[in-house]
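pasting for ref
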Amino acid sequence: MTTQLVVDSSVAVKWFDEREENAAVALRLLEVFVDGAIEVIIPDLLFYEVGNVLLKKWPHDPYKVQKGLERLWHLPWLLFPLRDSLLTRTAEIAEQCGITFYDALFLVTAESSDIDLITADEKFLKKVGNFPFAKSLSAFQG
């Protein structure tokens, strides 16, 4: 059985800038993902968040933003469908942990799929420490 993971936007944005902290680990995760050794499940929110980051990273280069988004879109993601029960659980976790609804959605995606969430956001990890399936990108051993 293929290993499945959820990655959040903090990981995906590292695929576009090798100077980012832990970019080498993120790029290794991407390589393993593209090679089919792991499957990555995401809520479609990832596209919106990464698109925002790319617009800020390359504000005067719409071609580069477009190519980045196309590259992201064509990865072999497994999209996790949003359901009303997830909205309620996402709101609960966001409130409980003091995190944004957006960040909580990635956590709920992992929780609902019974798999690990990989994040590069260490502040987020501290806030969700009671969820043992939330893991740091720096610990990825792909």
